[in-house]
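Handoff note, outgoing to incoming analyst
You'll be picking up this chain. Sequence as last confirmed:
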Amino acid sequence: MLNKHLFLALFLGFLVQLPSYANTKTSNEQHVETVDARFAAWQRQFKRKALEQGIKSHIFAHAFEHITPDQSIIKADENQPEHVRPVWQYLESAISSWRVARGKALLAEHRRTLDAIEKEYQVDRHVLVAIWGLESSFGRHLGNKNIIRSLATLAFEGRRANFWEQQLIAALHIIQNGDVTLDKMRGSWAGAMGQTQFIPTTYLAHAVDFDGDGRRDIWDSPADALASAANYLQHSQWNPGQSWGFEVKLPTLFEYDSADGQQQKTLQQWLDLGVRIRKDRELTEQELAMSASIILPAGYRGPAFMQLDNFRSILKYNQATSYALAVGLLSDSLQGELFSLHRWPQDEVPLSRTERVELQELLNQLGLDAGKPDGIIGVNSRKAIREFQLNHDQPADGYPSNRLLDKVREIHQAQP
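Most recent structure output, in case you need it:
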């Protein structure tokens, strides 16, 4: 039998431990309270800004009722995937047989609406339908996040806070204008909305009421959504009657460093250098005088594309080159041109984010300015890669391959 004095000592020892559990719980509760308190303070400050910019007090109160920070939004904003899909896999998905077939059916179904949109905005219908398909699978996937909560979380979280506050005030104006009810204002985690995935400021500037019902409804009206996209492209210097670009064949001794998407020549000048358009077509004098540049989305081992001014207009819709290329190729596929993967280097394994960061760090250490080592291979990183390739007698395509990383490691290790 347990000695009663020993039992009492053990019991008192247990009681002594209770406050530590209570303190742990209190600490967690205090953390929640701290976040809630900081969010409430931010909300009071933001409300003053919103009211100063014309938002009515009752609209703000209704929109922010029960709004709390959404941790999944912060994770989505901060998350950088360890691996990225190669561009050819992205294109294969973007230009799927289903998307092409569905796009063709919708071209026929909305023929009269598209006739009217083309007449009004002078933007090619196939490009509009391609954007529709890529942004929301033709209205099937609009996103289910509360736009107000998403934007409030991003503005409160602090990264690019001014940008997100601007988007949030624009979203409140949309509700106040009566274009959409609060419960319908849903979209992506980053605040993109409707069948054409406009952010709020783009919506205010370019959304149109094309079906004449008095509302700019990019959520439920394909006419409004397509016309809004056309209006946006028109204001992005879309050139009527001009292609987005072509796939081209480069000559054997082509200087790959000129295929950076920035160096522009007339189409005739590129042809004089031995570049050939793969499509069998006659070019007019006007087309031969067009300004064009060349891109190598998968490096020198993959296909080359000549991008015209309309490609740059699509880039203003979404700055990713792979996206603009997908829009162009999907628009071609809707007109009967089949996309092929046989010229893409499908044996290439893309660099992971860790490897891309390492590449940027090593290039910087070698005195080549690759920019901030963030794993995003942008203009500065590609410029640094090309400079390295030129210095070491490699094809200067600016492409971050495993072979390139191995060579950069080798040169870095040989440094004194």
